From TrEMBL:
The keyword rRNA processing does not apply. This is Polyribonucleotide nucleotidyltransferase 1, mitochondrial. It is a peripheral membrane protein. The lineage of its organism: Eukaryota, Metazoa, Chordata, Craniata, Vertebrata. InterPro entries: ExoRNase_PH_dom1, ExoRNase_PH_dom2, ExoRNase_PH_dom2_sf, KH_dom, KH_dom_type_1, KH_dom_type_1_sf, NA-bd_OB-fold, PNPase. Residues 666-737 form the S1 motif domain. NCBIfam families: polynuc_phos, PRK11824.1. Signal peptide: none annotated.
Amino acid sequence: MKHLLRLGRPVFRLHARLCHQSVYSRNTNPRSVGVDLGEKKLEISSGRLARFADGSAVVQLGDTSVMVTAVSKTKPSQAQFMPLVVDYRQKAAAAGRIPTNHLRRELGTTDNEILTSRLIDRSIRPLFPAGYFYDTQILCNLLAVDGVNDPDVLAINAASAALALSDIPWDGPIGAVRVGMVNGEMLVNPTRAEMASSSLNLIVSGAPCSQVVMIEASAENVLQQDFCHAVKVGIKHTQQIIQAIQRLVREQKVTKRTPAKMFLVPNEMVEHVRKLTAEKIYAVFTDYTHDKISRDEAINKIRLETEEDLKNNFPQAEPFEIIDSFNAVTKEVFRNLVLTEYKRCDGREMTALRNISCDVDLFKPLHGSALFQRGQTQVLCSVTFDSLESSIKTDIITTALSGIKDKNFMLHYEFPPYATNETGRMGGSNRRELGHGALAEKALRPVVPKEFPFTIRVTAEVLESNGSSSMASACGGSLALMDAGVPISSAVAGVAIGLISKANSENPSEMEDYRLLTDILGIEDYLGDMDFKLAGTNKGITALQADVKIPGLPLKVVMEAIQQATVAKREILGIMNKCIAKPRESKKENGPVVENVRVPVSRRARFVGPGGYNLRKLQAQTGVTISQVDEETFSVFAPTPGAMNEAQDFIKEICKDDQEQQLEFGAVYTATITEIRDIGVMVKLYPNMSPVLLHNSQLDHKRIQHPTALGLEVGQEIQVKYFGRDPTDGRMRLSRKVLLSPAATLVKTLSDKLSISMGSDHNRKTGTES
């Protein structure tokens, strides 16, 4: 039986090779193509690495190389959506480093890896055909990092090339570039050194015909016209990358597979649902008395009735067909209402904002707090200050690429399930929360002073959600920072723009008609074609993120969205300024305190304590953070004045020495033994003095193993000579042996030996034991 099992393994492997023979043969022809991006050359190659994957590509810029593989199953998934997984992983070896954790290997995923995975996902997902529900995995492997060129943009291009060169159905390719701006000049794929002085960090993914698929940007108050120009420059260069990938596809003569099944709803079912429910759904969407909950309940009631009817009239229909047929009609009614009647389901105009209210200083113990309410989206933001030592430490690759080891400003976004009237798991942050928090952090970071003396953490907790909670977090975070007295250069507001479009029947890649919606609701995001988030100040733009659900947006639409968002942003800033117009000039009573404490070298050992015990105790009991500034100065950070007072009392108690006397170097003093130890005795020169160690080596000229060998006891008084303090640790230097004559010690030792010898002789004579 074991022999048969052993035979089974090579047979299985042979079968696997035969199954992949066509893929392998297609991918064994190494080819490469270069793209000139200004002074830099991007190289795209395939056919040499990972040839068992459906598609594999390596993109190199400078000495930074990223390999991406694409694999899609041929058996349909059970999921009723596109099950796409993108994993970008950084390897420490790529940067010539070894991981610093205890296992010395890569563990879990870092925030930067997750955010880069989201960038790639958002760039490629819109181009998969509708109804393609097959498990698809995109793995991005960082091969080498030169510390000059960022790998994230290369990974997007490598994913595009891997999918385009595979037989996986995908309507690509796409191209992606990073655009920086230094002294008004646009730079394509700038180096790390160039990005250090750039006021713009824009990543744009483009589709053929100069269409936009994804935008991710952070900026330092870049003017609207400069930002629009940067997008155009980026899209122009993405077309060169797209053409290069298309050339590789033609050379390799790629043929896309025909899926066994596309999950599309039959037209007859959609028509049946349309006749049955269109008017009912229309009535719900035109009833402006509804809010999020009541509207959802009304639609769900119609859904349940429709599903029962479909089960009776179409008994052979699959569950996804029943669900999707209703969703298709709901989406159609909703979109037609906007396109043809210029109506939104809450009764607003296309460019109107929801009702906004703001409040600050909600909780007195907090360093800063704000509540931002926009319609049924509510976000509570709090600001916390901490010492600079508590700043976030970046991972190895990020440090190698950016040179930044830590940062003193962070924003954490939380989205509990009750915000949408649901239940769910609490704890930890998922990819969505991490992405939304990163966007709001990008929006606020440019206005936070870089030399602020504290580490700042903004916590944005979504209490209610009905769309655009990330931009509400940016608004609430700005208000909370001003409430905390952080001297931000300007207030920041954010808004989300949606899109409802109609494709051209003859050319689906072109738009026949479209409407841009300001400050979108959750349902407008779900049933729309775009979630376009823009944040900034009255002067310019600080962050932008565009999530597109259609294969591409014309540049004209993107420019209009930026303009519409800019107008809305200024209106929101006007409302926020009525609540708080500028940062508090004086810090709040419970604000953090930083003071320098001078500890003489003579008392430093006592202040720190054995093994740092006193410092750890002080920090644990009072909540302060202590760091050493120089030889005699320690910086004490306290989150509140009360904590500082408590810490000062603690420090005085530790370092007090009420009756310390001016000891004279070389003088002889009477010391009292307070404790006997193996290595010496603890003595005091005066009553309130802290005991100091008199080492065995300073007790006597002869070598002793324990102080009791000299007959020393606790409470005994001995004469010692004072030699000042050690310049390195500040400890007292005392000696007893210098007061003892070596000759006298020798005579005393000889007499002791003689006495012992005579005693032994006497014992032998009397027959007693010595």
